[in-house]
Write a structure and sequence with these properties.
Elements (H helix, E strand, L loop, with lengths): L26 H8 L3 H10 L13 H14 L2 E4 L6 E9 L5 E10 H6 L1 H18 L18
Antiparallel strand pairs: 1-2, 2-3
Helix pairs in contact: 1-3
Length: 153
């Protein structure tokens, strides 16, 4: 929907707001795939070729499924030179009140620049995704602590 350019234009990423990228290769696309229903995911895999854009693009269905499992476990997606050599991206899901993915928020930049500050960028990205999700009515549901009954304060 939107794109904000860095004031440090040492590395130009050729993305455009609203431009479509292959779901199996982009961080945001892989986040969407990771949270699809099993039927939706199988439909995607059966009807789409996992085309190589670089030598790092995931083109094997088993490897993609393993990558999607990692995304579900850690809560964010990574694109590591899968679309464009030298580019690296992190994406986090934006969820609504029913816990469905309604969008993503991502950071794209040069591999070296993002990796050197990845922990800080990731913390900010996840916080932003959570804040936006909150505006869509999403509330994190944690399990009750062991030994405590629900409803007692």
């Amino acid at each position: 929907m939107d794109k904000v350019e860095s004031p440090n234009n040492y590395f130009i990423i050729s993305s455009r707001a609203g431009h479509k990228l292959p779901m199996h290769a982009s961080a945001s696309g892989k986040v969407f795939l990771a949270y699809m229903s099993e039927a939706e995911l199988q439909n995607f895999l059966n009807n789409n070729k996992l085309a190589a854009l670089t030598d790092k693009t995931i083109t094997d269905k088993k490897k993609l499924l393993a990558n999607l499992q990692q995304i579900r476990e850690r809560g964010y997606g990574i694109e590591d030179e899968e679309i464009e050599p030298g580019a690296y991206s992190l994406a986090a899901p934006v969820k609504d009140a029913s816990h469905r993915i309604v969008g993503t928020i991502s950071v794209v930049g040069s591999l070296a620049r993002i990796r050197e500050q990845e922990d800080n960028i990731l913390a900010d990205l996840l916080a932003a995704a959570e804040a936006i999700s909150h505006q869509f009515g999403y509330r994190f549901q944690s399990a009750p602590q062991k030994g405590l009954e629900t409803g007692n304060a």
